[in-house]
Structure formats: C-alpha cells, structure tokens
Amino acid sequence: MKIIKKDKEEIITNFEVLQLLKHKRKIEEQVLLNEFVNNVIRYLETTPASKQTIDSVKECKKNITKLSNDSGCKILKGEMLQLLNIAPSSEVEVHLVIEDCEDRIDAKEVLKEIKNSLGEEAVIRDENTL
Amino acid sequence: MFHLITIEDKVRIAPSQFNNEVQTIEDEIEKKYTSKVVLNAGLFVALYDILATGDSYVHSGDGGAHLMVRFRMVVFKPFKGEVLEGVINKSSRESIQISLGFFHEIYLNPIELPNPSNYNQEEGLWYWEWNENQLFFEDGGRVRFKIDQVEFNPEISQPAPSPKNVNTEAMDSYSLREYKERQIENENLLKQVKSPLILKVSMREAGLGMVSWWINQTDDQEEEDNQNAEEQDEEIDVDGEDAPAIEEYE
C-alpha cells in the first residue's frame, strides 16, 4: 500500500461525503452495510450538511468568493470549507472560522450571504443529540 | 474534516470473479479498509473512485489475479485549527472525552477549557464560571471544539501469549527470573497500546464550548444588555442615595 503524495491535499465538504454515502447505501441495498457508515451518516445528518443541495452549496461558494474579492482579501480553502460545514448563524462563529476576520471581511455580510444562498432552514439548527 | 487521498494498493481477484472485475475491486478495498485508520492519512470512510489499474499477474500456486489499483478514498482527518461539533461522552478530573458518533478518540485536557473553569466533584462535571453563572459541560451535550493536535500512533507488536499452567515453584532461579522479566515486558507493551488516531482539542476561544450557549446568541445579548442597563440604573440610584449621606458627613 502506498499513499501518493500530492502538492495539495484535497479537502472535501461534509455535504459531499453525505451525498456519497447516501448514494452508496442506495445502490448496495444491503441491510448489513456496515454500522460504521450508518454512524457517519447519522452524524452528518445532525450537521447543516443535511439541508444543503448542490445548487445552494455552489451558489454560496460563488457569493462568498465574490464578497471576499470585493473586500480585497482571499478566503482560504480551509476557511471556505468550514463556512460550508458549520453554516454559521452568528457573528461569533464567523470570527471563529475566519482568522483576523475584522481586518479582512465583514462578518455581517458573510452571514447574510450564507443565509441567502443556503436558505433559512440550513442555518437554523435544531438541538438534536447524536 | 474529511480529506480525499490517492492510494495505490494490490488487490486479488478470485477466478470466479474474473467477469466482474470492477465490482470485486471495490468490494475488496472496502472490505480491507472499512473503519480502519491509514497511518498518516486518516480514518477510512468510503471509497470515492478508482483512477487506474495495472496489469494483472498470476502467481504460481494461486489461481487468482493480482493487480495494482490506484484509487481515491474519503478519510476522516481534521486539520489543525478546524472547528468540529461532537457530544461529550465522559468527563473526569483528568480529561473530557468527546464522541462524534463514529469516532470516539477525542480528548480534551481541562487546561484547554474556557478560563476560568472548575471541576464539580459531586456531579463529576466541569463547569465554566461566566458572570457568576456556572455553565456545566453536561454529559451528552453537544459541544464545539477546535483541533489542536492530530496524533497518529503506529501499531506496536502485541506481546506473545504466555504459556498456561505455569508452575513457578518448579522453576530454577534462572528461569524464574526470566519468566518475571518477560511478564514485566508484556505489561509495558500493553501500556503502550494506543488508539491509532487520537485528536487533542481545545475550547479556549469565544464561540467554543456547549453549542447551546451560543445558538440564541442575539437574544442572550439583548437580555444581557438589558441586565447591564438595569444594573447601571441601580448603581446610579445607589449613588443618588449615597450623595446626601456624604453631604451630611461634611
């Protein structure tokens, strides 16, 4: 077994993983499809990823990139990933995810873009325990 | 939280599956890796796609074909500084264990709790002292945390099984000493056994900790502002009462 090193590590959003696993579950139709995959799906369904769609994720990414270009900074890949994974609903969360947020980008604008593109219900989270 | 990595590995295809090559490769890979940690890569979650396969070889003594496959897989491996959500599994004075439902080896050193935090002996829980409120880290509560350290532990060899029915009295002094040494060695080996992937996390920044603390943040802030305003009013009132008293003294 050999890991092929690449210059860039590829990161993948929670949403994509959830889609992949759900697709796998559908085609295999096995009841015994291992417990582990079911646990991952169960976990991801408690995150905002369960309420996202391909279009909404694409649009959100486009809008935030545009917003960051307008304010003259670059949102890093990891930060974008986390914005999509966590779907922040308050400013404190945006500050948590984006480093030096106050110097780089307006947190309120980011919140607005996320709410507009991902939809209301994607941002509001219910207090489901795992 | 999830990464896509490219890997090359050898797969054996049994003769009965020669007409069903791709499906067999997928099955074999999933069978081999599912819920295992690939060292320095992460915890295998799913096969993403197959990029290429090499030539098939048949070795003497085996009817199956062996071939190299290059494929991509989804692994769970958070990067340093990533923010995740999980559920508190167990709290103790030494550490708090957090679970993601599919991964449980997440440990929080109490030093990394929001400052100032204390341990409640009776409840067996940690709490954060915030404005004279005790905010508890409840077991089963959803928490948000930041990844501090991703630790991979290579597999270490297991101790050899000790022989049953050892009669220590029948041994001479030399073999008795050897027997004891081996026992101590085995115990040390077992102590070193660790989970292959351990995450160390912290909660020292604003926005981390129990998710419920931050969800209704706007409402809380308003309430807080109101409270502060009331407190200020009271202070002014107090000042108003104090003022004449001072005059009297003069």
Please, could you describe this protein's structure?
The complex is a heterodimer of chains A (130) and B (250). By secondary structure, chain A is mainly alpha-helical. Chain A folds into two domains: 14-51, no CATH class; 54-123, Up-down Bundle (Growth Hormone, Chain: A). Helices cover 62% and strands 5% of the residues of chain A. Chain A has helices at 14-28, 35-45, 54-70, 77-86, 91-97, 101-104, 107-118, 120-123, and strands spanning 2-4, 10-12. In chain A, α1 crosses α2 and α3 (54-70) packs antiparallel against α7. Chain A is globular, with a radius of gyration of 17 Å. The mean pLDDT of chain A is 76. With 250 residues, chain B is α+β, with helices and mostly antiparallel strands. Chain B has two domains: 2-76, Dna Ligase, domain 1; 79-156 and 193-242, OB fold (Dihydrolipoamide Acetyltransferase, E2P) (Beta Barrel), CATH 2.40.50.140. Helix content of chain B is 28%, strand content 37%. Chain B has helices at 21-33, 173-192, 211-215, 217-249; strands at 2-13, 37-38, 42-58, 65-76, 83-91, 96-99, 106-108, 117-120, 125-130, 133-136, 142-152, 197-202, 209-210. In chain B, β5 (83-91) and β6 form a beta hairpin. Chain B is flat, with a radius of gyration of 30 Å. Chain A binds chain B through residues 1-4, 6, 9-14, 16-17, 20-21, 24, 34, 36-37, 39-40, 42-43, 46-47, 78, 82, 85-86, 89-93, 95-97, 125, 127, 129-130, and chain B through 1-10, 34-35, 38, 40-41, 45-46, 48, 70, 74, 76, 79, 81-83, 85-87, 99-102, 140-142, 146, 205-208, 211-212, 214-215, 217-218. Chain B: Residues 8-63 form the RNA polymerase Rpb7-like N-terminal domain.
Characterize this entry briefly.
The complex is a heterodimer of chains A (130) and B (250). With 130 residues, chain A is mainly alpha-helical.
